[in-house]
Fold each of these.
Amino acid sequence: MKRIFLIIALLVVGVGIGFAAAWVLKSMQGSEATGEKSDEKEILYWVAPMDPNFRRDEPGKSPMGMDLVPVYAGGEDLSEDEVQINPLVEQNMGIRTSAVKKGKLDRKIQAVGYVEYDENALHHIHTRVEGWIEKLSVKDTGDPVEEGQVLFEIYSPELVNAQEEYLLAKSNNNQDMLEAAAGRLEALGLSSEQIQELNESETTSQRVRVFAKSDGVVGMLGIREGEHVTPATHTMSIAELDKVWIVAEILERQSSFVEVGQKVEFELEANPGRTYKGSVDYIYPELDPTTRSLQVRIMFDTNNEVLRPNMFARVTILVEGSESVLHIPSEAVIRGGLTDRVVLAAESSIYRSVPVVVGMEVDARVHILDGLKEGDSIVTSGQFLIDSESNIEVAIARYEEEKKEAEKPINVSVSATIREFDHEGQRLRIKHGRIPEWGWKSMTMFLPVAEESLFDGLEKGQEVILDLERKPGERAKIIGVQQVSEEQ
């Protein structure tokens, strides 16, 4: 019997201990849950990443199929254009940042170009007499020619008469007339070799041959056999293929960066994978009124390669940076809309969009003219989602206000009356008139004095003209005092 009571007592004690342990464990779990809950921020609502006006009370998808982003409580102290993001959400969004850097930014101007004949090695052929083309040795534009090759033969009564005069002077053994006749033949286009041949053969040629003066190709052919020509007729042009130009078209907005002597690299569609090097030889004085582009001429060594006119070229002009500038990754810039902008990353996962003025883009970097300072941290990945939540109108208004503030003059002069001296604090209490340059109304205030010597000769109630200075980020101060005489 005692044994039964003992067993029952042990069971009661065991059940009691179990209930006690369960109660303690539940209390601990409840306190942990309460602690975790207190650490988590309250979610106010869920918003579409690309449409801040689309809000829901629970997670889901936006009309564009994107996951809704939670908006947490505790952001009451943020300004209108700032956004605070939970660190976990930051990680899920893949947000990356980069610092604004300052240094020389070498530019690369990309342009299109084409091969042209070197006009310094291009010569045009005109006859010096009137006549008819009896025989044409070259038939088409582009035909190769060699130095000394016969280009065409011309019949000209004037040339025939000049040859007969030469032979007549020779037969009469009149040296003066012979020299005059030889000079006339040379003036009409005959070479010294042709005159010597006439002198030896003593036979008039009805057809006078015209020779090529250099190797090359026929760049232009303007005559055919049997055609009547005059000295004004452009018969043909001979171009040397081993001497060509590359003429590049530079956009108007990039034209100010191009200078003679800059290094150039270009590739030809005809020779893919081959890079040619040269330099800017000449900048044409006028822009093309149709394409609004500036032409530049590029000289280079062909290395005995034949480059044919009108070949297409992809040209890169290397412009070395002359001074240090601010620059950021190009991917960080959000273009379009009201203005170009970037997302500035502050502490505690706070972000805001700021307007920027961008300059030339070079490779993967872009020059920042205004809106950022060296060392600022900007978002380079995920900035579009943050920008969609930011109030860009407020950011633009702030930017315009800061810009106006920076444009205000640093130094102004104003009439004032001295009210009180504070030698210990090196201040003057004055009543000044309106300062429209700074947007100040007439008021009484203390202003610091730059030098203690400015107190000399001043009295309470005295009318003076104060020279004030206010640098950005500093309080205005008195840097000069002009005493006004009673007569004035």
Amino acid sequence: MVKRYSKNLEKENILLSDERTLLSNERTFLAYINIALTSLLLGLALLQIAQLPQFPSNLAYIGIFAIFVAIITLITGFILYIQRKKEILSIERIKIT
């Protein structure tokens, strides 16, 4: 009876580790979204500030660059999230009998 308990516990640990890995992947994707939104807001703020007469117009270029970085970060994060999720779900686990 002890063997059955330990085998079931091992199966449970494998399932839990898969879930933790998936949640970690999602948390990383949310970090990419956070960085993208921060860059986007920075870019929009710089574009608004560049319209004021007392600030140089060079800020507009920096703002456009920050928006570009936000878009690239979001696309990269999404692609990596999908790739890693497929990798995690395709890993074959050792069958415990």
